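Try it yourself: sequence plus zinc ion, in.
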Amino acid sequence: MIKIEFLTKKNILILFFVCFSVINTVCLAEANTRITDIRFWQSPEEAQIVLDLTKPPKVTEVNLIKDGSLNFNIKNCSFRPGRQRYPLQNPFLEVLTVQEADKDMSVNVNFKTPAGVQAKTYVLPANERKGDRIVIFLREPAAKQKQKRDAELAEVKQLKSENVKIVVIDPGHGGEDPGTSGNGIIEKNHVMAMGKLVKAYFDRDPRFKAVLTRDGDYIIPLDRRRQIAEHLGADAFVSLHINYNHTKSIRGTEVYYESPKGAVGEAERLVAEIENKVDFADSQIPSPIDPALSKKELIEKQAQTMYKSRFLAEKTEAKLAETIEGLPSRGVKRAGFKVLHSLAMPSILVEFGYVSNSADAAILKNNVNRSKLAQSIYAGVADFLLSEIKDGIDEDYIAYCVQADARKAAAEKAERLRKEKAAKQAKLKKAKTTATYKVKAGDTLSKIASVKGISLNSLLKANALSLNSVIKIGQVLKIPEK
Ligand SMILES: [Zn+2]
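Structure, out:
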């Protein structure tokens, strides 16, 4: 999963940021990297340019050059076509030129964006799915984004005033992140098609309005998926996925909602965020979290949302389970999926089955089955939204928090005791090594050693003396540790 985090700063139109974490580790002249592919992804709000490489690249800083274009070099790099110019002329990118520079064996990347577009460049290390990459993220101007969101919000507000329920459907993955795949199914594509079907079922019913987090093949950060729903004040959030397991016999649908462990982690993150006085107003989408919430209130709010999420999960699972004969339900489960960490609305994640299981895959590839599954998501969510569900709290979560607090307090106490003990020992050691003795009349070195319970040798050594040394009354001797 690619981490995308856009900085926002007032009065700065274009931001550049290159992660050099990998760069310093690869400096050998023979370790040439090669650009194997250049790919483009685009969503309504942003675009990505991905340069696939054979090895971790060594990249120079991004420079703004006179004509308003941006430029960086990849050192010790080759690009087989020599030079390639991509005149894209889209809302994010006017032109991209990738060119080998013969003289210093580097490749020059030059790109020009329309005014106001924000650009950020990352070097991403290889993972089990992808090789080394340089990714350039381009986002539309902040003012334009705000304009769009405001229009969206006004429409939703109107619908809500007419008592229409808002359901946000989140087709998982997309773009650079294909999700899982197998038996002829690529998760990102399948869940996109499913998302559109589910939305169609909701939109046919005047009591509901469904909004997709993405409607094309592009990636959206996990946080932003639920932020979209939170911003719209959605009544329910449903993330769509397909599962994979190395054990090919594992199969069936699953419906997840937030786990206590995931929620505790999120509560801690939010408290840290509030304590660090993160300026929510400055972020791309305003946070629904009231910065004045105490940790206790935050946990309570989580427990209330989770309580409802459980009903949403159960009702959806009940419909899914009876949809297709031969597609078993693995039931309702809890897990700490980042996309489910919402305080604002009940949220679930649906796994439609396992691509790794050929029977599940065959069912999922069938169009009639797809429609049936989409309809059952609609039916389950609608059942939840139209039922009278009283307020309550997730008791398991509260119990978990109490235990977690006790565990944390015990760990803190143990750590405090350990530190105290270590400090005591250090003090004792220091006292021992710095112990001194003032010579009195009648003292001899061997007498002092014997009184102090140490060997004569160690006394001599500690004071750089020999057996023939003479000591004087009033002389201060160091007394070494026993
Ligand atoms: Zn997935």
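One thing you can check immediately is this: Residues 395-433 form the longest helix (39 residues).
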